[in-house]
Amino acid sequence: MDDSLEKETLSMARQRYSVTSHPIDTLLTWVKAGEIAIPEIQRPFVWEPTKVRNLLDSLYQGYPVGYFIAWRNPTVKLKDGTPAAGKRILIDGQQRVAALMAGLLGREVLTKDYETVRIRIAFHPQTEKFEVANAAIL
């Protein structure tokens, strides 16, 4: 067997992960169903509302928004102290998932100051622009 082919075969045999592409609506379905969990090691939500607006605009424009990395391990402790049994533990992408939860699902987020806030993003269909909602827009 060719040496490089043998190394590639060994590498593939040891691989413990897979990369799967899912649409955003699948991710939101997992969030709604409580299948996405945030481990206790993750930091609180730190994004400004304008960054949430920019993420929604990027998705709307079809731009890439990076990967979300999830892991299944039933012994990991979640933010609320419970074990993660059966859930997808979010390793990377917490800020983006929280931004989607806030901007698309209307969920409140816990800030770095441990305040619960609701971030409202408005969309103007004629101009196709996203804005952070304020009194004038509302």
Structure description:
The protein is of the alpha+beta class. It has one domain. 33% of the residues lie in helices and 17% in strands. It is built from 4 helices and 7 strands; from the N terminus they run H-H-E-H-E-E-H-E-E-E-E. The chain has helices at residues 3-14, 24-32, 49-61, 94-105; strands at residues 36-37, 69-71, 88-92, 108-110, 116-118, 121-124, 129-132. The strands form 3 sheets. A 3-stranded mixed β-sheet has the order 1-3-2. A two-stranded antiparallel ribbon has the order 4-5. Strands 6-7 form a two-stranded antiparallel ribbon. Strand 4 (108-110) and strand 5 (116-118) form a beta hairpin. Helix 3 (49-61) crosses helix 4 (94-105). The protein is globular, with a radius of gyration of 19 Å. The model has no long low-confidence stretch (mean pLDDT 84).
Please identify the structural class as seen in this structure: alpha+beta
Radius of gyration: 19 Å
The tally of strands reads 7
Strand content bin: 15-25%
What is the domain total for the residues? 1
Major sheet details:
3 strands, mixed
The shape is globular
Helix content: 25-40%
How would the blueprint of this fold be written?
Layout: H1 3-14, H2 24-32, E1 36-37, H3 49-61, E2 69-71, E3 88-92, H4 94-105, E4 108-110, E5 116-118, E6 121-124, E7 129-132
Parallel strand pairs: 1-3
Antiparallel strand pairs: 2-3, 4-5, 6-7
Helix pairs in contact: 3-4
Summed up, what is this model?
With 138 residues, this protein is of the alpha+beta class. The chain has helices at residues 3-14, 24-32, 49-61, 94-105; strands spanning 36-37, 69-71, 88-92, 108-110, 116-118, 121-124, 129-132. Helix content is 33%, strand content 17%.
